[in-house]
Structure to design on (127 residues):
């Protein structure tokens, strides 16, 4: 393989990793907006966001190749993998200690029986 083939493969892998990472971050943002309560919203923020950041930084590492910049990116990834889950846990635990309740779906309202018909309505139906 010559250098052009390697650069083309590297560019394709970088593009796939960057696209997938951006996709996960967008999905996490939508999850934060769409989920009903605090505990459900913190889940995409802690999981998909961390994985999206990892894939984006991995794409940058592949693009850069092995260099001092890649070493810095590995340190950033290690920090993100430690800090994001720890912060998510701390926030959820603090909310639980403060008494934040889980969301519960409201029970369905009972169907009201049909109101009784008056005598006038019964006589007008037959005519």
């Amino acid at each position: 393989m010559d250098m052009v083939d390697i650069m083309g493969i590297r560019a394709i892998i970088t593009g796939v990793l960057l696209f997938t990472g951006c996709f996960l971050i967008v999905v996490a943002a939508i999850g934060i907006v769409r989920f009903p309560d605090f505990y459900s919203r913190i889940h995409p923020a802690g999981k998909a966001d961390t994985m999206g950041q990892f894939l984006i930084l991995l794409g940058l590492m592949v693009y850069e190749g092995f260099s001092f910049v890649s070493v810095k990116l590995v340190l950033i990834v290690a920090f993100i993998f430690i800090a994001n889950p720890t912060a998510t846990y701390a926030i959820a635990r603090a909310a639980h200690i403060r008494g934040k309740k889980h969301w519960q779906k409201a029970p369905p309202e009972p169907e009201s029986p049909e109101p009784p018909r008056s005598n006038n309505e019964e006589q007008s139906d037959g005519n």
Notes: The first helix runs from residue 3 to 34.
